[in-house]
Amino acid sequence: MRSVLDIYDLAEGRAQTLLAVESHIEAPNWAPSGDHLIVNGEGRLFRVPLVAPELQPIEVTGVKWLNNDHGISPDGETLVVSDSPARGTSLIYTLPKAGGVPVQVTPLAPSWWHGWSPDGARLAYTCMRGGQFGIATCALDGGDEQVLVTSAHHYDGPDYTPDGAWIWFNSDRGGAMDLWRMHPNGTGLEQMTEDARVNWFPHPSPDGRHVVYLTYAPGTDGHPAERDVDLRLIDLTTGETRVLTEVFGGQGTLNVPCWSPDGKRFAYMRYAQG
């Protein structure tokens, strides 16, 4: 499987390829400095410079298998990763931006990181507690875990708006997998999409104008890899939604915050067979 890291420019209405490799990489984050991306692949973490792009390994000592739920703090100084050596074991860790020894954040598994509050004080993540999925937040030391919403339904992909007023996520709590949002204390739940598509991983832009997300064909179960998917954009000013591009991907394409710091571009993965 060939992995292709693309950058979509909203003004130009098209994508350009930054890097293509003959290995499996996933889930690009854009650093607040604007000069590099972070991706994972085969249990490891890599930096990809925008100038002379290549996979530069980031040393993460003592973990077994980093999954595609990783990111960067608002000040750009700290990385957050999710280590998942076996199914249902994912825990969240932080470490310096250059790499090093990770510090465990969440005491309970499974916990999959997805968002960092704009003030840098809290992490948002998908969790399973008491046998039910939910969306939770906690302080950077792992204390004060607050499960904001939980039920027998699936919850995933929490990501903050740049003003900190909302957390967007996806859930099938309404009967189908759609996008939702709520206030950071779990109040004000609103369903934001209602269509035939299977909608995952909403990411509000840093300028507060858009939300980009991944959609599967109707009837898709979960968020599998190796599918034909759409990347769609919600204009938060007009409420209009449009299809930006169609790619072969799914899992690994758009799992985590992916916008450039100015909100004009975003990064994503697509894949090619053979």
Automatic annotation (TrEMBL):
- Tell me the InterPro entries matching this sequence: 6-blade_b-propeller_TolB-like, WD40
| Pfam families xrefs | PD40
Gene3D superfamilies assigned: TolB, C-terminal domain
Sorted alphabetically, which SUPFAM superfamilies does this protein's record hold? DPP6 N-terminal domain-like
Source organism superkingdom: Bacteria
According to its UniProt record, which protein family does this protein belong to? Belongs to the TolB family.
Q: What is this protein called?
A: Translocation protein TolB
